[in-house]
TrEMBL record:
InterPro entries: FAM173A/B (IPR026170), SAM-dependent_MTases_sf (IPR029063). GO terms for cellular component: mitochondrion. SUPFAM superfamilies: S-adenosyl-L-methionine-dependent methyltransferases. The keyword Protein transport does not apply. It comes from Leptotrombidium deliense. GO terms for molecular function: protein-lysine N-methyltransferase activity. The keyword Cytoplasm does not apply. GO terms for biological process: methylation; regulation of mitochondrial ATP synthesis coupled proton transport. Belongs to the ANT/ATPSC lysine N-methyltransferase family. The chain crosses the membrane at residues 21-42. This is Protein FAM173B-like protein.
Amino acid sequence: METFNESLAKKYDSKSRKLGLFLGGACATTAVSILCICFPFVSPAFRKICLPFVPATKQQVDNVFRGLRSRKGKLVDLGSGDGRIVVEAAKRGFQATGVELNIFLVLYSKITARLKGVNSLTSFCRENLWNLNLAKFDNVVIFGVSEMMPLLEQKFQKELCTQKETIVVACRFPLLNKKPIEIVGSGIDTVWVYSFKSGSN
């Protein structure tokens, strides 16, 4: 016959098992959630060319649009991050597109554009910038890294050298073989402005 102590021990073991299963499930769920949230921010480090998200400073944004003064038309920000360049471009009358691989930053950018009242002039897409044909844009903004600038320059030469002039604003790092038509700012806030069209050097 089962004693009182044995019965109590069984109940305690049963409750302990249930608590253990609950805590184990909660820990696993938390770990998976953290992984899902962090992966889009960490994954760029595993690509051949890493383009990390580093928010533009206010001065960098100002310098970009000093380089684009008197310009209008379609603008694309390659690696648009939190969308601040695209939103500012829309405020200034551009039809602006942000291209970004991080889905959370794309969603954040869409929400920001709506809150700022410029969602009708903006669009954001989750896409690899190397797969995007730039020919339809009048203005291109890129916050690049040194490793990608030679490949970007080749892409610009291939896709932007048409009859119309396309202005490229490179931030943080210049193109290596193309002479800028203007340099705005200094230090980390420097931007280089380039003109691409058929027959240009």
